[in-house]
What we know:
By secondary structure, the chain is mainly alpha-helical. The protein has one domain (3-176). The protein has 8 helices and no strands. The chain has helices at residues 3-32, 37-46, 54-71, 75-99, 105-119, 132-137, 143-154, 164-176. It is globular, with a radius of gyration of 18 Å. Mean pLDDT is 88; it is low at 172-177.
Amino acid sequence: MNRxxxxxxxxxxxxxxxxxxxYAIHGWMGHRFRTFVTPMHQVHHRDPRxxxxxxxxxxxxxxxGFGLARxxxxxxxxxxxxxxxxxxxxxxxxxxxxxRRPRGRLAEYLRTRHLIHHCRAPDRCFGVTSAxxxxxxxxxxxxxxxxxxxxxxxxxxPLTGSxxxxxxxxxxxxxxx
Length: 177
């Protein structure tokens, strides 16, 4: 197989792995079972402005940076890089869902699903960046159910004010001084 195609496939495998991790962390660790994630996720449901896991970004970036410097673009590092990019994409999309109007049909669909999860069906729609695992594992909404609930969240405006991003960055800046 062509090296570029193999590398792209390995990276895409990492993205797929991230999507399952996202579902497991949100759905199972945040909702279904009582874990260390549950209290933090309950805070997010009470106040959606608290959306960032920015404390995890630096260790993830450090591991990826170290791994790439030490091992280069090996198959394992390509997969791990896909997982890390998936995590970063999730964080950016999750922020946009809560704080910005959607641009395009896909963004509107993902925002609708996530707001239905927050406001109407907390035991459904665990995937934020994709409905793949919700479909595969039976936690997706049926089309008729989605259609029925959509109007209840369609007019919700984006959040205003600041997220916990600024507060977390401020804490880091002041604690580093």
